[in-house]
Fold this protein.
Amino acid sequence: MKRIIPILIAGILLAAQALAAGTLTPVGADYAPIQIMDHHLDVVINNGFARTEVTQTFSNPNDKALEAIYSFPLPKSASLSEVTITIGETKMDGEVVEAQKAKQIYEEERDQGRDAGLTTKNEYKTFEFRVARIQPHAEIKIRFLYYQPLPIDTGVGRYVYPLQEGGVDEQALAFWTTNDKISSGTLSVDLELKSAWPIDKARVPGLDQDTSITRIDDGHYKVHFEKAGAALNRDFVFYYMLKPNLPGRVELLTFRDKADANGTFMMVLTPGLDLKPLTNGSDYLFVLDISGSMDSKLATLARGVNQALGKLSARDRFMIVTFNDRAKQLTSGWTVASPENVKAAADQVSQIKSGGSTNMYEGVELGLKSLDADRATCFILVTDGVTNTGVLEPAAFHKLMKAYDVRFFGFLLGNSGNWPLMRTLCDASGGYLKEVSNDDDIIGQILLAKEKIVNECLHDASLSIDGVKVSGTTDLFINKIYYGQQLVFFGRYEGAGKARLTLKARKTGQDLTYSTEVDFPAANPDNPELERLWALNQIEQVQLAQDIGKMNADEARGAIVNLGLQYQLVTDHTSMLILSDQKFQEKGINRLNQQMIARERDARIRQAQGGGQIVQADKSQPMFNMPAPSLGHGGGVLDPLTVAFMLSASAAALATRRRRNRREDR
């Protein structure tokens, strides 16, 4: 086994222009595209997860009735729970049914000239919303709502509303053109942040001039953004930073509407750990995707690598591996980081041309085979993950990475990247996956990643829960815990009362144990959304098991369909059918989602009045005896390599924003 220690290149994280969310029109169509009149976003971040509600109005500028199709980048781990279509005085709501049945009913209604809607999931890429018909010169309104967990990273919270598509679906790109422009109204965002812990600061990078941030109290902020005639072509990213020196802690959120029913929980561990800086030097291995889909990102990639190379010390070595349809070493093996060698490599990187397909397996394999067992190596993989040449099976990637004892960091550029494939590499290695929006605060992302890379981590970490019977949990074998990492677990529980939590791990050959007791309540009606989040977490674990060969496709499909129907989730095998109440009755479709939505809306009223707060479950018996790590507090000065990354990222971000502003000015 070889041990690998990675380091992040910041400059290559900023992807350039991509396609946007919007209405889809077939290429070469002889009618005007459906217009987006306005787009409003309402977000509440509370209880360790976010609720996002989107409302937008569309109009048909043509003289005939048309089907409308709206494409929206799929947020990772998003539990889509509500879709409502309003046409005049008619309102239709959604129920989740098996995908083929939903498609058949929708097409029948559409072909008969009746009102209907359909929401489907396009793998890991997008949600697509279809409306059977918009009458000539008429308007419709679509509203949808989803939940997602939001872990804190080194004291920093981050919410992304994705609007840029990743440009990774070649078939869709060839067939559709996208209209992302709001024609007459505004793009607006209202975001409310409620935190049980005091907030130090908050920001919306890149949109400061059009955004107001109001502090209500230490843990309560409100954000408003509004812009007329905007395009849906950039992500809305919101950051907030907790106050420093908060305790390491265990927090628990539960839902149980009846004492004789199973409860659902979300448990959040924010470790306070003594993870010291790593002081030994490293080799630096850069594994870079230069395929055709990376074309718009290549200049930024080159700047980042060149800045990094320029700051290596004379005792360091480096190697650069690139891949498109084939992988190759750009450098001649491991190269001493002398000024002459660094300059020659920088010139090579600056001349890289993108093109070809993506043989990611060969790139990863060549990088791993090139390691020197006698030296610690920093390993970075930067890609959009859309592999389409060579070995494609996720199980093969998992087996390859499993053969190495690695600290693996994967950086996934833009929305619609293949995060399920990158997840298999992280699962095999205990690695850390970072998704990077084009509109991220890149310097902040660098600092978050740097702290994990340059400090020790825990190995062979696992969590046990005893005293209360739990089932259907997130995998309790964590493998590695990195500096500042917050751990989120979902599960079901029976009974009630005290449970013993025990976290075991190893650090530099030493066995460590952390423990506490937490209380699982007999009843708590305030957080019914947890059931959908738990079910989605189960679906993601089923998909991972299928990807790495631990579950066959039929078994996985059956499990996903059952969870999707029972908890009303749009998945690869289930879709949301939107009909009138009368039509659902005619089709004999149960109104399970209607019941779940009513329960969730009642709970939101209680939450708005202060109910359903996440609580520190280990307050009387703290599990950790140190403060949780926080970014920029208590540390030393930045090392020269990080400073170089920050400068490169800043220049790249500024250049990209200037290009975007020039495009919008036109």
Q: What stands out?
A: The chain has a mean pLDDT of 85. The chain has three domains: 3-14+280-451+632-665, 22-190+571-608, 249-275+458-567+611-616.
